[in-house]
Amino acid sequence: MTEKPSKFTMLRSLLTGPGTNFIMEAHNGLSAKIVEEAGFDGIWASGLSISAALGVRDNNELSWTQVLDVLEFMSDATSIPILVDGDTGYGNFNNFRRLVKKLCQRQIAGVCIEDKVFPKTNSFLGDGQQLTEIEEFCGKIKAGKDNQEHDDFSIVARIEALIAGRGMDEALRRAEAYADAGADAIVIHSKKADPDEILTFCRLWDHRVPVVLIPTKYYRTPTDTLREAGASLIIWANHNLRSSIQAMRATSARLKQHETLIDVESEVAPLNDVFSLADAGELEEAETRYLSGQARPNAVVLAATRGDDLGDLTADQPKCMLNVRGEAILGRQLRALSRIGASEPFVVAGYRAEAIDLPGINKVVNADYERTGEAASLYAARQALNGDCIISYGDVVYRPFFLNLLMERQEDFVILVDPNWMEKRETRNAESRDLVKLSAGDAGELHADAEPLLVDIGPGVADADGEWVGLLRTSANGARRLKAELERMREDGSLDRAELGTVLKRLMARGEEIVALTVSGNWMNINDLLDLAQARNAM
């Protein structure tokens, strides 16, 4: 098995690899997790954002040890590299070389320092920024390189000559000197709204070391223009902080004005999403393993189908193995199941079963997948139906907190339903086989205190209240009754062609109550190329 490269090597690859790469700003552990979840390959730990999040100015009012505390949380929370905004290095060469050592110890992959005097002033404030002498800054770079504890730790030198009004010749002279001193890359910075001086620099620079751009002010410039200029890395420098400010102001104003959560709750992230991002499921799994001795929930993923509407993408693999933001659909599901402490999931394969080769699964093959439906696939994994169990379609992409919602319930049968299913499908009129009718009536009533019950499910449901997400949770008792129903279906000959919706309808006919929890968005069922494109864009 190939060993995963270190965070240091991953950042170096972003700087020196082909094409243009992108990293996104974060300012604490939570925002760092969101950046990784979005699919970015690296994180920019912004000095401005970290300072603002702690309520102080971006003028070295935070000590470097306080910044280091924040970085440690960010690094522990993520598996992608972090490039930290190191301001001016927090002093002279001696301060900087100690900073580099401490960053390496916390697996921070690189640091960017700017050639201004300490304490710094934010580049976008005022005029006449004071620059340090070239020789002094080169000494700082050399001290950092001499004291880094990993060969691939990166020191990025940020040139402020254009910010300070010193001109292009000075910017190029400093770039040459910093590259000679050992800088692994340079940032050429500008506060002009047009990119002309940035593009001129890139044209004149010989690219001995990679160029990093931060287009905060010249944001109207097409990204392809920056690519063509030779940018190795582009930093989206402060937009998570700024978007969070706008969202918090709007929520606070609405609560102040209306004094009720009714209109706000549906507009903010569900509480379980917060718990999921904080990896609360891992603690629950650990408690199960180390404290309580309670049985871990079982899981079954139904992944036997090819996905004919996906064309050549599924010529050699089932659709559960399609890539969504760097990870197979099934891989994303396994990661979510591990967060709730599920035992090794039973994955029911069929088409190209050999392509399902992920570790940590119990693979069951439905050899008759072309002739049979989901009920037969579930029957093939019936040994999993002997305790609390999560049953999932193999082609659904969802946020991990969905499983937390299900596991909180004590009822025998619980499903997730999206009342905004038509909105999710946008202008398409495709008929879903998982349309549902609920006891609460129309979708506007689904937020009542009592959870609605499933009344009907299938493609012909009239006046549907929503769409089933494709996730079912059973208690141990529910699992036994589900298993018994599957046995009855096998005996009466109805098993082979039945879908899960049919099984649920038979359970309801026997008097079983199936609770429906409502979710809005945060999932996608992958049936065709448009679904896949939307999932890669939104999930």
UniProtKB/TrEMBL annotation:
<dbReference type="InterPro" id="IPR029044">
    <property type="entry name" value="Nucleotide-diphossugar_trans"/>
</dbReference>
<dbReference type="InterPro" id="IPR015813">
    <property type="entry name" value="Pyrv/PenolPyrv_kinase-like_dom"/>
</dbReference>
<keyword id="KW-0460">Magnesium</keyword>
<keyword id="KW-0413">Isomerase</keyword>
<dbReference type="InterPro" id="IPR025877">
    <property type="entry name" value="MobA-like_NTP_Trfase"/>
</dbReference>
<dbReference type="GO" id="GO:0016779">
    <property type="term" value="F:nucleotidyltransferase activity"/>
</dbReference>
<dbReference type="InterPro" id="IPR039556">
    <property type="entry name" value="ICL/PEPM"/>
</dbReference>
<dbReference type="GO" id="GO:0050188">
    <property type="term" value="F:phosphoenolpyruvate mutase activity"/>
</dbReference>
<dbReference type="InterPro" id="IPR040442">
    <property type="entry name" value="Pyrv_kinase-like_dom_sf"/>
</dbReference>
<feature type="domain" description="MobA-like NTP transferase">
    <location>
        <begin position="299"/>
        <end position="419"/>
    </location>
</feature>
<dbReference type="InterPro" id="IPR012698">
    <property type="entry name" value="PEnolPyrv_PMutase_core"/>
</dbReference>
<keyword id="KW-0670">Pyruvate</keyword>
<dbReference type="Pfam" id="PF12804">
    <property type="entry name" value="NTP_transf_3"/>
</dbReference>
<dbReference type="Pfam" id="PF13714">
    <property type="entry name" value="PEP_mutase"/>
</dbReference>
<comment type="similarity">
    <text>Belongs to the isocitrate lyase/PEP mutase superfamily. PEP mutase family.</text>
</comment>
<protein>
    <recommendedName>
        <fullName>phosphoenolpyruvate mutase</fullName>
        <ecNumber>5.4.2.9</ecNumber>
    </recommendedName>
</protein>
